[in-house]
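User: Can you recover a sequence for this backbone? Please restate the input before giving your answer.

Assistant: Of course. Working from this structure:
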């Protein structure tokens, strides 16, 4: 049998499989989870071997067999990212996150997917979409102040100061003892001309570190500015 005949046979078998699955779904028959899991494992194996095009085929077959198989969407998204195809990965990550939230999948992969998707949306300039994702990431990883500063600085440098303010405000709630978060919020508020709110943020920073001359000077300086 020639290679062309083999490829044709493989394509026809896959086409028949997809038609069968679609027919089953239309008739209300439950998804073939065992088949989907087998295809997922094959996709994972191909992915680990960096046989990315073959992995894509297997992940897509897994999704066709079970459209609620969250890990297949994640595997397919990661494969597209390995091929530097972020536009194809982005909607798959969104679907994975939605399914993971619904199915209460363990937090570690969900957190990683949220953080990755938020970063991708920011890099693409989709700030309004990124903000909701970033706020959810802060909920999932409430003590990670490094990622908060990266998020907020990215928004602020892009002229999205209000989004940066929302990020720092959310982080203040999850890290109530972090004085530098409050100071960073105050800095952006002051730059935006919201002096009273900035003063309150500096005062919160000082209350968390009452021996800090740095925070005391911020409070005194801004208070004098407001009093003029």
């Amino acid at each position: 049998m020639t290679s062309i005949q083999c490829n044709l046979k493989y394509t026809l078998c896959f086409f028949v499989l997809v038609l069968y699955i679609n027919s089953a779904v239309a008739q209300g028959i439950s998804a073939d989870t065992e088949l989907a899991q087998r295809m997922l494992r094959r996709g994972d194996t191909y992915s680990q071997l960096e046989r990315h095009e073959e992995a894509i085929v297997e992940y897509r077959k897994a999704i066709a067999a079970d459209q609620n198989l969250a890990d297949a969407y994640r595997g397919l998204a990661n494969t597209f990212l390995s091929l530097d195809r972020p536009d194809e990965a982005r909607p798959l990550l969104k679907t994975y996150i939605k399914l993971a939230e619904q199915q209460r999948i363990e937090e570690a992969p969900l957190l990683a997917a949220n953080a990755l998707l938020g970063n991708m949306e920011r890099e693409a300039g989709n700030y309004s979409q990124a903000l909701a994702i970033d706020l959810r990431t802060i909920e999932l990883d409430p003590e990670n102040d490094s990622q908060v500063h990266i998020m907020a600085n990215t928004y602020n440098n892009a002229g999205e100061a209000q989004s940066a303010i929302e990020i720092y405000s959310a982080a203040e709630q999850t890290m109530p003892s972090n004085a530098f978060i409050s100071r960073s919020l105050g800095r952006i508020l002051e730059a935006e001309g919201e002096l009273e709110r900035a003063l309150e943020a500096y005062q919160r920073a000082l209350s968390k570190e009452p021996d800090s001359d740095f925070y005391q000077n911020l409070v005194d300086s801004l208070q004098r500015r407001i009093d003029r």
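That completes the design. The CA atoms of residues 153 and 164 lie 7 Å apart.
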